[in-house]
Design goal:
single chain, 452 residues, mainly alpha, 0% strand, globular
Length: 452
């Protein structure tokens, strides 16, 4: 079979999965559960030959182990198909959410941002924090695409002694976006599994995102302070000022407001609201700005380039969802709380430490955070470990975010390693201290602000 035909088949299958999922959410027609699960099984079989290395073995392990667990539990056919469809929400998000990033890449905005960088971020501290904040803001809308966009602005001029520091800022900025972006797989997975609206966790996640900035700066404080002292003695000469591009600022703020408004006004799952907004809002913005050519090129690039590049993630995430469903029919959700009761500490606190250690530890050795997060969110009742659903959501999202910069398998670390021509471990190593401090900060944050 010709590669172009196979690619078209894969693309059609992925779009079909999203279409059936949307139809199921709108109609609740029970037979669609079986059609959706069947499409997922077909997609995994079709995409499996594309996988290599650890991703291949993980996907196979999830499918085989999940099948064995369901067989041992004598689960009926409905459970098999429901388990297969657990992470379909993420696939649907992959199809639509990237469309929000098309207006962000408008040439006028990118040029204005470059000027803003060159003019205003003169010291090491300002450049470091500015890079982290901008990566976080851009990452909310264009995901991993924020890394090359901000990288091109930051590295346009040589920055002596700043290469790894700026890589840290990019890495941690992306982690900050994981915390609160409604367009990320992390937020969709957690809020869907726990039945929470995005707006209910947003205030807590924004606070944690700010905390990540503070922790990041403190971790690299000595190097940044030394740079500031050196540069403050130099005559910067040029007193020109530049502001953040007004149009881009309005677009980013309005995109968040649109989602919040839709969530309150339209009684639909969050994923469907994002799909509606992604199809209409960026298109309308580009039309008003007279940039329909950019929109058409961005849309075509998304369908023909971005989606095929996500085949590995889509297959792994679907397999992880199936495995999570198989875990759900066992007594795993009851076993963990009963084991924690034997430890002479509050169950809620012990479980929090266990969760952070599990997600960060498995990420450290190369396992994608979606695996432990899917299992925990789908099998643990937060009330059984004496915490609220919001507390559980903040715990899971916070653990996912802090583990991303230290994972040798994360897309960001691998992308930065290629851009900087360093090994992935060289890129990840400076973030070990950050992850440890954020883990401690997350536990304190939960205890003080979120409560149980």
């Amino acid at each position: 079979m010709a590669p172009a035909v196979k690619t078209a088949m894969e693309r059609t299958l992925i779009f079909s999965i999203a279409a059936v999922y949307i139809a199921l959410q709108l109609t609740q027609f029970e037979l669609l559960i079986y059609l959706l699960g069947g499409l997922v099984f077909v997609a995994i079989v079709l995409l499996l030959p594309k996988l290599k290395g650890m991703t291949l073995w993980l996907t196979l392990s999830f499918m085989v182990t999940g099948a064995v667990l369901l067989w041992l539990q004598k689960a009926d056919a409905r459970i098999w198909f429901e388990s297969a469809g657990i992470n379909v929400t993420i696939v649907t998000l992959f199809l639509f959410a990237p469309l929000f990033g098309i207006p962000v890449r408008l040439p006028a905005y990118v040029e204005a941002l470059k000027k803003f960088y060159e003019v205003n971020l003169r010291s090491k501290s300002a450049l470091f924090l500015g890079t982290q904040v901008l990566t976080q803001l851009m990452g909310v809308f264009i995901n991993v695409g924020s890394i090359p966009v901000v990288y091109q602005m930051v590295y346009v001029k040589p920055q002596p002694g700043m290469n790894l520091l700026l890589a840290n800022a990019l890495n941690r900025g992306f982690a900050g976006a994981i915390l609160w972006s409604p367009y990320f797989a992390a937020m969709t997975l957690v809020t869907s599994a726990l039945g929470l609206p995005w707006s209910s966790v947003l205030p807590y996640m924004l606070g944690l995102a700010i905390l990540s900035l503070v922790v990041s700066w403190l971790v690299d404080y000595r190097e940044l302070l030394h740079g500031d002292l050196e540069e403050s003695s130099q005559d910067v000469g040029n007193k020109e000022r530049a502001v953040f591009p007004f149009g881009l600022g309005i677009y980013l703020i309005a995109a968040i407001i649109v989602i919040l408004a839709m969530e309150r006004m339209i009684d639909l799952p969050m994923v469907l609201l994002i799909c509606l907004a992604a199809l209409s809002y960026p298109l309308l913005w580009c039309f008003v700005q007279g940039e329909m050519t950019v929109y058409k090129e961005g849309f075509k690039n998304h369908v023909t380039v971005t989606l095929p590049a996500l085949r590995k993630e889509i297959t792994l995430f679907l397999a992880a969802g199936f495995f999570s469903g198989s875990i759900g029919v066992t007594r795993f959700g009851e076993v963990i709380p009963s084991l924690l009761e034997h430890i002479p500490l509050l169950v809620s606190f012990t479980f929090s430490i266990f969760t952070v250690a599990l997600i960060a530890g498995t990420s450290f050795i190369g396992l994608h955070p979606i695996v432990p997060v899917t299992i925990l969110a789908g099998s643990i009742d937060p009330l059984d470990v004496q915490i609220s659903p919001i507390y559980f959501a903040v715990l899971l999202l916070g653990s996912w975010a802090l583990s991303n910069p230290v994972s040798p398998a994360s897309a960001v670390n691998n992308l930065l390693a290629g851009l900087l021509k360093k090994s992935v471990f060289e890129v990840a190593k400076p973030n070990y201290k950050f992850a440890a401090c954020m883990a401690l900060g997350l536990l304190v944050y939960l205890l003080v602000l979120v409560r149980f």
